[in-house]
Design brief:
This protein has 3 helices and 6 strands; from the N terminus they run βαβββαβαβ. It is of the alpha/beta class and about 170 residues long. It has one domain: Rossmann fold. Strands 2-1-3-5-4-6 form a 6-stranded mixed β-sheet, covered by helices on one side. The protein is globular, with a radius of gyration of 15 Å. This is Hydrogenase maturation protease. GO terms for molecular function: endopeptidase activity; enzyme activator activity.
């Protein structure tokens, strides 16, 4: 199978703690500029990924805010079948992340690999403190996690990879 395109999408909105996915995508767009075969964009809801011309040969990396997996700023990577219960289940995105990933599976797109990177949000009490840019330590952890997946050998790209903490 010929190598496909890589789509890196930040999920969320421009408001509140949910903007972490968008801030990550905006930062990664600049950090990964010039990399061939890569589209970096923001999505208001997971199903918006179908607005792009995706195929079975393509790879998908989603970055989203998460809650309850560690201290604020924790970066964790998950395979679709290893999403912790509750991650992506409460969604401001319409169809939740898990349901969208089930649809992706049923349609047979992104067979070359799917990864979800979650960034732990501040507690609800501290939501007003969300920055308008990624703090440097968080950006470094995010870049490390993204590059680890982008540059992984073919066998590490497939579904079923489990999760890793960065």
């Amino acid at each position: 199978m010929a190598e496909g395109h890589i789509y890196l999408f930040g999920l969320g909105s421009p408001h509140g703690a949910d903007r972490l996915g968008w801030l990550a995508a905006e930062w990664l767009h600049a950090a990964l500029a010039g990399r061939d075969g890569l589209t970096v964009d923001t999505l208001g809801q997971p199903t918006d990924l179908f607005l792009h011309p995706v195929t079975a040969r393509d790879r998908l990396l989603l970055v989203d805010a998460m809650r309850g997996q560690g201290p604020p700023g924790t970066v964790m990577a998950f395979a679709p079948d290893a999403l912790p219960e509750g991650v992506g289940a409460l969604s401001t995105h319409g169809l939740d992340l898990a349901s969208t990933l089930a649809l992706v599976e049923a349609l047979g797109v992104f067979r070359a690999g799917i990864r979800i990177i979650g960034i732990e949000m501040p507690s609800a009490a501290g939501q007003g403190a969300i920055a308008t840019t990624l703090p440097a330590p968080l950006a470094k952890r995010l870049r490390t996690a993204v590059l680890a997946w982008l540059d992984a050998p073919g066998t590490d790209r497939a579904r079923g990879e489990g999760h890793a903490k960065a």
